[in-house]
Every structure is written in structure tokens, then in C-alpha cells.
Design goal:
Blueprint (H helix, E strand, L loop, with lengths): L13 E5 L7 E7 L2 E10 L13 E8 L11 H4 L4 H15 L4 H4 L3 E10 L4 H22 L12 E9 L2 E4 L3 H4 L4 E8 L4 E8 L6 H25 L2
Parallel strand pairs: 4-5
Antiparallel strand pairs: 1-2, 2-3, 3-5, 6-7, 6-8, 8-9
Helix pairs in contact: 2-4, 4-6
Catalytic activity: tRNA(n+1) + phosphate = tRNA(n) + a ribonucleoside 5'-diphosphate
InterPro entries: ExoRNase_PH_dom1 (IPR001247), ExoRNase_PH_dom2 (IPR015847), ExoRNase_PH_dom2_sf (IPR036345), PNPase/RNase_PH_dom_sf (IPR027408), Ribosomal_Su5_D2-typ_SF (IPR020568), RNase_PH (IPR050080), RNase_PH_bac-type (IPR002381), RNase_PH_CS (IPR018336)
Organism: Roseibium aquae
Amino acid sequence: MRPSKRAANELRAVTLERSVSKHAEGSCLVKFGDTHVMCTASLEERVPPWLRGQQRGWVTAEYGMLPRATGERMRREASAGKQSGRTQEIQRLIGRSLRAVVDLEALGEVQISVDCDVLQADGGTRTAAITGAWVALRDCIEWMRARDMVTKPVLKDHIAAVSCGIVEGTPVLDLDYAEDSTAETDANFVLTGAGGIVEIQGTAEGVPFSEEEFSQMMALAKSGIAKLVDLQKMSIL
């Protein structure tokens, strides 16, 4: 039995609440159980210098955790003067994931910056961030469409992410912190709504995992992400 009493293929309770920021062009408060992430998408009428004059846009992401998002207060990275390697790796993952489903030429010569701020962490912050970031990004693009700033389809598909792992020899879906901290294997899957693979991160923390176990985690991820995409679709109705 999992600590949360969930079945091996069961997601935590997931909610996607839109338009939670007064100022951002797109926003979403995403909750995967006790992991809560605020995602905002901001339109900036500029692009990185290396993209200027190319008639296409850019989507980028930043990620951070509030000092008391975890059990003990963490020092703000701004006060330390630099971002941790973990923070940089996660925000690059979020940016790559979003760009995988964006037609940058249709977006035009603008940049959308998606900020993912972890309000409360209980495992799976990066996967929750990607899932909520898509909703915020979509609403930002629709804000642009309402003002005739885009005319062609910009989003090519949904994108969502979920963690899987092997805990006490059993492949399970959507690890919370209690499982994540003890898992023999921890993996993150980022897939499109059509099932295309964008990125997989998997690490054996102790005993190496087999190809069969990987296939089982992949099947769990596909099932979980299909449910997350359905929730995204319901949230934007």
C-alpha cells in the first residue's frame, strides 16, 4: 500500500485554476495533491538578440521555490546571488517542453516568459509546473488572439508531465515526497497530447531498473498524462 493509499496507477488529486493573476496575460494555479505551483505567462514585445529580425518568437521559462515551500525555510536564491544548478536545469526543461508544442513563426517576433513559482512542495514540482505552464501559455496566446496579435494557430498540441518511479519493487505513478525520497528509481516523463515523447529523465537511486520496469513506468506515464491532458481540456472550456 502506498503512503497516500492510492493505487499504483492513480494520480494525486489534480486541479488547474485559471486566471489567478490580475496582471499576467495568462495564469494557472496547478495543484498535484500538496504540491502547488503558480504559473504566469507574460507577453514581452522583444526576443533574444540572436532572434532579432527572424520573424519568429520565443518561449522561455523561469522556476523558483518560495522560502517556506518545504519543511524547513530555504534561503532565497536571489540573496545567495546565483541560481542553483537544480533551478537552472528545471527551468530549461520547462522551456524546452513548452517550445516543443509552439509554432514560433506563427507566434511572431515576441517572447512569452512563463514563471513557475512553487508555493508548496510535496514531490513532482517540475511535472506540475509543466502541466500548469501549458494552461498559462495557452491563455496568453488567446489574449494575443483577441487583440489580433496572432492570426494563425500557435499551439500545436497539449504538453503535460508526470513522475513515475519504482517504490519497494513496484512501479507507481505520480510520486509524492514520501515516495520520491525512498524510491529505488525516479523518472519524469514529458509527453504531448498525441503521445509524442518530448523528454524522459530517469535515474536509478539504488538498484538499476530493467527494460521491463521502464516499459511499465512508460505505460503508467502515458495513462497519467492522458488524464492530465483531459483536465487541461476541461479547464479551458
